Amino acid sequence: MTAPPPDIDAAVVGAGIGGLATAHFLRRAGREVHVFEAADSVGGRMRTLRRGGWTVDTGAEMIPSAGYPATWALIRELGLAAADVPRVPGALSLWRDGRARPNAGRPLGLLTGAGLSARARVELVRLLAGGAGDQAAGTLEEFAERHSPELREGFLHPLAAGFFGWRPERSAAAPLLAHLRSTGSTAHWRTYRGGMDTLARRLAAGLEVSTGRVVHEVAAAPCGARLTLDDTAVTARSAVLAVPAPLAGGLHPGAPAEERDFLAACSFAPMLRVSLELERRPSAAAGMRGFAVLVPSTEDDLINVVTLDHNKHPDRAPAGRGLVSLISTPPATASLIGASDAEITAALAERAERYLPGLRGMVGRVHVHRFPHGLPEAAPAALRARAAFRARPARAIDYAGDWVELRPCSEGAVASAHVAASRVLADAAERCPAHRVSPVPGKDNR
């Protein structure tokens, strides 16, 4: 008996950047795509909140000029101009010995010191040049132990914790080192004018997206896939799960073994970020200027990153007002993420007084951003399981997200979207020759 035709052609679960990019590539190839998003807006971990002249990014997305080829290709394809992706001045400083040291992560910092001794700077140059070789195998902690305590505790640990939420003993060294080497100098970091969700909103504008629609399960079906929602079930010729790996594993319990193994190995680090709308711009302490200050745990066991978002781009706060975000250390995140907004804000704002004196007296509205599934940890077990996952045959149900590439950033998400779209198209061509469509240009179906 012939199975009835599916209700929809291609379904994407999740309207973060990975899901929206996948839907875009499939639509560009001739597929009809419907995106289901549980939240009330698109963007996922790249959402932006807007109210009263403030533009509050829920995360800390930066776009390096190098090392993000898939992202930049998509930016150009969507017609974003250079003015839409401006440079972030004074992007990164390192807090050391009671003051902010500018030019961290850029060649000038290697000359001026950026708070590091001459020996540590030499180590950093060798590390960024790729001189570590096979020593990058294993965890970040195992790799870091081969370097001086200064480089380990003053640079590697805070960088991994502040931007990826990683605990060095849990995450692999190789993905972090590959990311640092490919992206180059922080002098070329850029952001999105109008908020970090700019790319997501531009993608969603050309797609059929249903927000506030929760998908509870996805299973293989004769037509391709069956999606169970709150009030109905729909069938699709293809489905892509563009949600964090732990959620994808729960949605698709019948996944083949090589998929289940990788999904189970892809653990995520929680992230906690508090954004404070300020009545005026604060006076910064001890050389603290520019956008982001990275704080080692040897200096502070509670706050890992302080960002002056009003310096990120002028549109982030009304004229004369301020916007500051505080990111907690991984141990503090684990202990605070279940606390109330008031408790989290009080703890972080009080500690932030050492960096921004008088901060608490300026605070207006507060936004607490909790991400239980913040960023993929890229654990060694996930690296081992990924080979079989990558080698699996194309199927009607596939996956997208930065965790697929084990690269916790938007570039990982966009790159995974290319792969997912290629695999979906290959599966459709195999199962439904009458519905052959154009492949995704320049990408294979890993």
Automatic annotation (TrEMBL):
Highest taxon of the lineage: Bacteria
Xref: Gene3D superfamilies: FAD/NAD(P)-binding domain (3.50.50.60), protoporphyrinogen ix oxidase, domain 3 (1.10.3110.10), Protoporphyrinogen oxidase, mitochondrial, domain 2 (3.90.660.20)
Recorded coiled-coil stretches: none
Amine oxidase domain segment(s): 17-425
SUPFAM superfamilies: FAD-linked reductases, C-terminal domain (SSF54373), FAD/NAD(P)-binding domain (SSF51905)
Protein name as annotated: Protoporphyrinogen oxidase
Organism: Streptomonospora halophila
